Amino acid sequence: MARRRQRDQTIFFPWERGGGFFRGRGMTRAKLVGAAFGMALLLLLLGARERKKTGVRSTAATIGVVRGAVDAYRADHERKCPASLDALKTEGYLGIEPIDAWGRPLRLTCPGRLDSEGYDLTSDGPDGEIGGLDRVE
Questions:
Q1: pLDDT tens per residue across span 93-106
Q2: How many structural domains compose the chain?
Q3: Is residue 68 part of a domain?
C-alpha cells in the first residue's frame, strides 16, 4: 500500500500571509510609529478638551459661591447690588477671591440683561473676550 501524499495547506489566516503593503516595501515599523504618533496626538487633543471643561466646571462652582454672597448682600441691603465684588469681600460676605479658572475677575452687572430686578454674574470664559460665545454664566 502506498502512502497518501500530504497536500499543502490552502487555507490561510490573515496573519499567516506573507506580505502586505508595508511589509513588501520594508516599512513594517512605519505602522507602529504611525499608530504611536496618532495615539499621542489623540491624547493631546483629549487632554486639552478636558482642561477646558475642568476650567468651565471650576468657574461655574466659583460663580455659585459668589452668587450666594451677592444674594446675602442684597437680602441685607434692601435688594441693592454691591458696588463691586471686592465690596463683598471687604464686608465679609465672600471668603474667596472672585476670579475664574483662567485668572480673570468675574463680572457683576446690575440690573441684569433679562431680569431688571436681578443681576448677571458672568466670566469671560477661556478666550477672555467680553461677552464672547464661550462665556460662563
A1: 888 888 888 888 99
A2: 1
A3: yes
